[in-house]
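Protein: UDP-3-O-acylglucosamine N-acyltransferase
Species: Muriicola soli
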Amino acid sequence: MKFTASQIAGILEGEVHGNPEISVHKLAKIEEGVEGSLTFLANPKYTHYIYSTEASITIVNRDFKPEQELSTTLIKVDNAYESFSKLLEFYNDVKHNKIGIEEPVFLAETASYGEDFYLGAFSYLGNNVKIGDHVKIFPNVYIGDNVTIGDNVMIYSGAKIYSESIVGNGCVIHSAVIIGADGFGFTPNTNGEYSKVPQTGNVILEENVEIGAGTTIDRATLGSTILRKGVKLDNQIQIAHNVEIGEHTVIAAQTGVAGSTKIGKNCLIGGQVGIVGHITIGDRVRIQAQSGITRSVKDGEKLQGSPALNYGDFNKAYVHFRNLSKLVGRIVDLEKNNGE
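Structure follows.
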């Protein structure tokens, strides 16, 4: 796809300084710009690159005044970073603007879908599936019986959505995500073996939830596993049965949350965090990467370590951890001297 400077300026409500007909077909960092690419300058420490970049078009703030001759065409906007982000969103919308049903697919007679629907080849839609408007489902996606999907949802190749799941408006589900797999429910029997506990609940994703590639969200034993609106999950995360995650909480990669734990709103949870089951984590909690959470957490706490401590206490204690061998040596010397 090619866009001219004048077309881009129209999208961003900007002003062209240079050749309005010059076109671009790809994006680049300002220091890596080549002919045919579009870049931006927002951070002043990168200003020197604008005089050497080979990018055809550069988005800059309106107050930018070049001190040397430029070879790049400028588009001046109120906020270069926000405008570039807006352009990336527009680019993605255009790139993914597919409509129609490819072949071969399996589409149950009782399945229904709305306007501007795209279904990629080798996908499967089960009985009583209900899909809203402007939904894009890429190839090799499985959607089980009685699944409901809202408007403006994007489901990438290879995702699996098990029966009874509910996906809200504006959700994004990346490749290899599994939604609605059985929760890890087993009970020991008299023979010393484990019998499976039927997992009869479902998964609910509220609006504007995004699920990263390779993440699994288990269905509830009874009731629902729920991700509230605006939740963002990174790649390769495990969310167990009956977990509830509050609005606008963000969780980084390789974190695991055990069953029936409740996480509050606006939390930030780092990568490789382990959270035990049947606890409650409050709102606005901050958990550093690789922490182990073994207790309920109050609103606003900041935690680090395994088992996790208050963030400030952990940093104070870490000073002693680093000097532990020296402290042991001093104790040994004192004991020797006392012995003498």
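Remarks: DSSP finds four helices and 39 strands in the chain.
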